[in-house]
Amino acid sequence: MATHFSNEALKFLRGLKRNNDREWFAARKAVYEREVKARMLALIAEINEAMLGFAPENVRPPQKAMMRIYRDIRFSPDKRPYKHQQGAWWARTGLERTSGGGFYFHVGGTELVIAAGVYMPEREQLLAIRRHLVDHHAELRALLAGKKLKSLLDEFDGQKLTRPPKGFAADDPAIDLLLCRQWGISATLPAENATNPTLIKEIVERFKVAAPVVALLNAPLISKPRKPMF
User: Fold this and answer.
1) What is the dihedral of CA 11, 36, 5, 3, to 10 degrees?
2) What crossing angle do the helices spanning 38-51 and 199-218 adopt, rounded to 10°?
3) Do the beta carbons of residue 180 and residue 82 sit within 8 Å?
């Protein structure tokens, strides 16, 4: 049977949102390990098998793809120690330490999110993607307008700038895309979907239709092999 989460996992995640402290978590860590962490690792492994067919460059070991439940609070005024959802991020090979395009999934107590794209590009990556879109905006638009993609995912708002970025003309045919600071698509579904054996199908179906978008956005970020001198 395909991996999915239990009602106990959702109950734990809802409780964690209400009781975000170390004492509460410590008393229920066994539940987290069994119902959330172990199932997420198994789910990632199954998704990896499917992704070999359409995004092999994004396949990652489950322990690497799964995100930590612990928040980094060193420089944050919000000192709550835990995230209230369990997430996973499939970065592209070679871009693991940066913010290139990838695939994302998380399950929380009230929702599950499936997404793909570029979320927090570094300054140089942002410029490279914008330059790429000047020549490839029609291709990206065609992908985003695809009937199947639009039935499964919604486009990001893009965190748009109010004026053209430096070096780009206001009348550029790609200007609406160049104003964006992130590009991608996502779907938010009821948390109860995570308890169904169809969960992996829902994730893989969306990842597969989003794969060409991710590949297009990553194209300018990938180091090209040097041509031989002779």
Assistant:
1) -170
2) 60
3) no
Cα separation, 74 vs 120, in Å, equals 20
Mean pLDDT, the chain, integer: 94
| CA dihedral (97, 123, 100, 159) positive or negative | positive
- State pLDDT tens for residues 165-181: 999 999 999 999 999 99
Distance from the first to the final alpha carbon of the chain: 54
Are 4 and 197 in contact by the 8 Å Cβ rule? The answer is: yes
Q: What is the CATH number of the domain that holds 68?
A: 3.30.930.20
Domain count, the chain: 1
Strand-pairing partners, residue 85, are 108
- DSSP assignment of 191-217, as one string? GGGGGSTTHHHHHHHHHHHHHHHHHHH
The beta strands (E) that lie in the chain are given as: 85-90, 102-108, 111-118, 154-155, 183-190
For tokens 């067919």, name the residue: 53
Helix (H, G, I), strand (E, B) or coil at 113: strand
Chain center to CA of 125: 17
Q: Is residue 50 part of a domain?
A: yes
Structure-token pair, residue 194: 């995570």
- Domain range for 22: 7-221
pLDDT at residue 65 tops 50:
yes
> Does the pLDDT of residue 226 top 50, yes or no?
no
Beta-bridged to residue 185, according to DSSP, are: 116, 155
